[in-house]
Amino acid sequence: MIKITINGKVTEVAAGTTILKAAAALNIKIPTLCNHDLLEPYGACRLCLVEIIDGDWSTVTTSCNYPITKEIVVETESTAAVRARRMVLEMLLGRCNTSPELDRLAAAHGLQSSRFELDYDDCILCGQCERVCREVVGANAITFAQRGVDRVVVPPFGEEAEQCIGCGACVYLCPTGAIQIQEDGEQKIIDRWSRVLELKYCKSCGVEVAPVFQCDYFQKKADLPTDFFDLCRDCRVAQR
Predict the structure, then answer these.
(1) pLDDT, tens digit, 9 for 90 and up, residues 140-199
(2) How many Å apart are CA 68 and CA 110, to the nearest integer?
(3) Domain boundaries, given as residue ranges, for the chain
(4) To 5 degrees, how large is the angle CA 41–CA 44–CA 48?
């Protein structure tokens, strides 16, 4: 166990625990847009910046992917940390000014607008969609492409996301609402990935079950009977 002091509060954590998790255990809130318990730390949004003080040395760094390996002092609301966080928020606002979550975080840091005027894009490249698709779902339907200012999240070769099963995990985790699912008749459409999926309906009651591709994916992955998704959950339970 390693002793760590965060905002004057002292605790002990296992070696390798991140600063973000150590702070959460002390009920100290550090803002973040790209962190989720189901995903590996990534440090893309840069909002979880904190100041680490180690003797006469100090630095500002992301807390979500900083493992604690020795005794340190951390300040989450120091002048340096807050100034750096405000700069990140301004840049994000300059890119995407229609996100309620970004607006909330900006207001909490005393920002109403951004001095930067960047090319608008409601995707802030936090990577949660790509990571949940790869790390949790295992579909690998989307990926990062290009570098620097040209960096984007797209299906392979920028074409239709043929491996997308329409599970909606990317929609659920997207912090800015950049990804949306629409239903049009018997189809489910994810515009951002140019993915159109036919829907499967329960053969007993007629209720929507899931996209056909998704049913086939999970049937094979879990080695279920080929007719497992012919019925919705309620009808399967009723027929037991």
Answers:
(1) 999 999 988 889 999 988 888 889 999 899 999 999 999 999 888 889 999 888 899 999
(2) 30
(3) 2-108, 128-238
(4) 75
Going by DSSP bridges, is the β-strand pair 49-54/72-75 parallel, antiparallel, or unpaired? Answer: antiparallel
Strands (E), the chain: 2-6, 9-13, 49-54, 57-62, 72-75, 143-145, 152-154, 181-184, 187-190, 195-201, 208-211
Question: Tokens representing 74?
Answer: 């951390």
CATH class of 2-108: alpha beta
Number of CB atoms found within 10 A of residue 26's CB: 15
Distances (CA, A) of 63 to 21, 41, 87, 122, 163: 8, 9, 17, 24, 33
Contact 232, 207 (CB under 8 A): yes
- CB-based contact 72:51 (threshold 8 Å): no
Q: Among residues 39, 191, 41, 42, which one has the least CA distance to residue 122?
A: 191
Model pLDDT for residues 87-141, shown as the tens digit of each residue: 999 999 988 888 899 999 999 999 988 888 877 888 999 999 999 999 999 999 9
